[in-house]
Every structure is written in structure tokens, then in C-alpha cells.
Design goal:
Elements (H helix, E strand, L loop, with lengths): L2 H11 L9 H10 L6 H11 L5 E4 L6 E4 L13 H17 L2 H4 L3 H13 L3 H9 L16 H13 L1 E7 L8 E13 L2 E8 L9 E4 L3 E10 L8 H6 L12 E8 H9 L7 E4 L4 E8 L3 H8 L5 E5 L1 H18 L1
Antiparallel strand pairs: 1-2, 3-4, 3-7, 4-5, 5-6, 8-10, 8-11, 9-10
């Protein structure tokens, strides 16, 4: 294969500052693609490419690391078309609502290129589309907590490479931090918070899986030791088990409640469960029946409707709501 193809691959393999990669790593990755080349040749390629492209070398410590400048424009071959540019603008709008700024840093050159392409498009229809499409949330928006960019990069790298992480973590409400060896399993974005799903040390049972909020990490170092994955673990299975909904019981519950017709309209279009049933109850209300997980989330959802909802079953949930209503009444009486 020619020098041009090899150099194009090298450009693709270089990370953006502050990350970097050395010639030994590039040699290994090129070999994985079937290209046998000495690292001295790679070094000459890098020096030649640095005269044309905004790439640089960190020679402050060995092994020397090469990287794209943090302000380098993204290069697409072929060039990004207007439809793709519009898609990037929509992704940018959506991600900004659910992720802290540090997580978006690596995509900023692509967002910038997308904006430039849309600005250059003559058709008014393309230029105005980003102003015509908006994403909203019905929940109360909260400002995302700060996450250290270096910690975020380390966690993502450990997750992608399947390696362990040594981290200092401060639990909520505690002053002191604790050091953990972490086996990363996945990332979950929940509202404005990013959670790392993981196990600790050498634990690898399903019941050992934990959730750590990334903004509570004080430091993170990537280790060379491979991470451990519990047998049979899958992210979707873990989420479906109710891990992020604060389970209140081990079994699904047969939920039954009365709701004012005007409020229940959305449940006809977006049901609570596959077996949901809605039947008339009286002039103003309908009866809703559905089998759902017994979670804190379903309780918060029901309480959010206030006087427009009356829980009928299960009896234990009805009693819990009655007790809470009495406490609230005493607060406002």
C-alpha cells in the first residue's frame, strides 16, 4: 500500500489534545490493519504531516506523544454534506441538554464545521432548520454538575479498552474520599448526571454491580490490568431490572388508580405498560390498571398529579400515599 494511505491512517489515529499517542502505539495499530512499517518511518511521516496539518509532538517526556491541536478543524473525506451538518447541529442541541460541557469537547470541531457548512449553504431552508427544531423536557431542568475533563477521558478510555481504573471517589454527603479499583461496565446519562456502571476490585457477581456519579470522582488513573465483567451482564438487562428507578419491591405490582379524564389523555398515547387498561369510572374520572415495577420513580410520578389521582391498589401503596398526604396537610394546615 502507498505512503498516502498510510499517512491518512496515521492522521485518523492521532487523538486531539490533551490526549496523545506515541510511535510504538501507531506501529501496533497499523500492523493490526495489515501495514508493516518501522516506527522510524512513522516518525518521518509525522514530521512531514506536521508541516501541512495542525499536529504537534509533546517532547517534554518519553515516549514522545503526537496529537491534533485542540483548535484544529475537523477534516472529513468526503466533506460533510448539508444533511449531515444539520444532523450534527441537532445532536449538539440535544447533547447540551443532557451532558456536561467536558463530554462535548471532542465533538466541538465537528459542530463547528457543521455550523460553517450550514452558514455557507445558499438554500434558506437549510440555514433556518436549526432554529425551527427544538428539544424540550417536561421535567424541571437542573444545571449539570462539573466533571473534570481528564477524569472523564480516563473513564471513557478504560471503558472502551476494557481496562481497570484506579480512582478516588467521594460519596454523597461525605467529606473524605475513598480509593477504589474499578471495573468499568458502561455509562448511563440520567437527566443531567453521568453515571459509571461498574464493579469494585475483584468482585464480579451481578449483585456487585454499582453506580458511581462521575462528578464525585476526585482523580482517575488508567491501569493496564483488564477489567472484570460479571457473567451474563448486559447494560440493557441491568437497566431493565430497575437499577436506575430505585426499586421499592422485588416483584412487579398490579397498579390501579383513578385519574381525571383530562389528565389521563396522554396515557392513551403513551401507556405505562404493555398490559395497561383504561376504563370509564364516572363522569370525571377513568380507572387505569397496569403492571409496573414497584419503584420510587412511579411513586414520584403519581404524586406529581396531586389531587387529580387517587391510588386504589395495591393497598400498601394506597396506605403509604395516605400517610404522606396527612404529613403534607399538617405542614400546610
Amino acid at each position: 500500500m502507498g505512503n498516502t494511505y498510510r499517512q491518512c491512517l496515521i492522521l485518523q489515529m492521532l487523538p486531539r489534545e490533551p490526549l496523545c499517542t506515541d510511535t510504538a502505539s501507531l506501529e501496533r495499530r497499523l500492523r493490526e490493519k495489515g501495514i508493516e512499517v518501522h516506527r522510524r518511518t512513522i516518525q518521518r511521516d509525522l514530521e512531514e504531516l506536521s508541516r501541512v496539518f495542525p499536529i504537534a509532538c509533546n517532547d517534554n517526556e518519553k515516549p514522545y506523544g503526537w496529537f491534533w491541536s485542540i483548535n484544529a478543524e475537523a477534516i472529513h473525506l468526503p466533506q460533510m454534506n448539508p444533511i449531515t451538518a444539520f444532523s450534527f447541529r441537532m445532536i449538539e442541541a440535544f447533547l447540551h441538554s443532557v451532558m456536561p460541557p467536558a463530554a462535548l469537547k471532542t465533538l466541538e470541531p465537528h459542530f463547528s464545521e457543521a455550523s460553517n457548512i450550514l452558514d455557507a449553504v445558499r438554500a434558506e431552508s437549510f440555514r433556518s432548520w436549526p432554529d425551527k427544531v427544538k428539544i424540550l423536557s417536561r421535567t424541571q431542568p437542573l444545571k449539570p454538575p462539573h466533571i473534570d475533563a481528564a477524569i472523564l477521558n480516563t473513564v471513557y478510555e478504560g471503558l472502551m479498552d476494557g481496562k481497570r481504573i484506579q480512582a478516588s471517589y467521594r460519596k454523597r454527603g461525605e467529606e473524605a474520599s475513598t480509593d477504589y479499583t474499578i471495573n468499568p461496565l458502561g455509562i448511563v446519562l440520567l437527566d443531567s448526571v453521568i453515571y459509571l456502571v461498574c464493579t469494585m476490585r475483584d468482585y464480579q457477581r451481578m449483585e456487585d454491580v454499582r453506580q458511581l456519579a462521575l462528578h464525585r470522582f476526585l482523580s482517575a488513573t488508567l491501569l493496564e490490568k483488564p477489567g472484570l465483567v460479571p457473567e451474563g451482564f448486559s447494560m440493557q438487562g441491568y437497566i431493565d431490572s430497575g437499577a436506575f428507578t430505585y426499586l421499592q419491591g422485588n416483584q412487579p405490582m398490579a397498579l390501579e388508580f383513578l385519574m381525571e379524564k383530562s389528565v389521563a389523555t396522554h396515557l392513551f398515547e403513551t401507556p405505562l405498560s404493555e398490559d395497561q387498561r383504561i376504563t370509564p369510572h364516572d363522569e370525571l374520572r377513568v380507572k387505569v390498571e397496569a403492571t409496573v415495577l414497584d419503584t420510587a420513580q412511579i411513586r414520584w410520578w403519581l404524586l406529581g398529579f396531586g389531587e387529580f389521582v387517587q391510588v386504589m391498589k395495591p393497598e400498601k401503596l394506597r396506605e403509604a400515599f395516605g400517610s404522606r398526604v396527612k404529613k403534607m396537610h399538617s405542614m400546610y394546615a
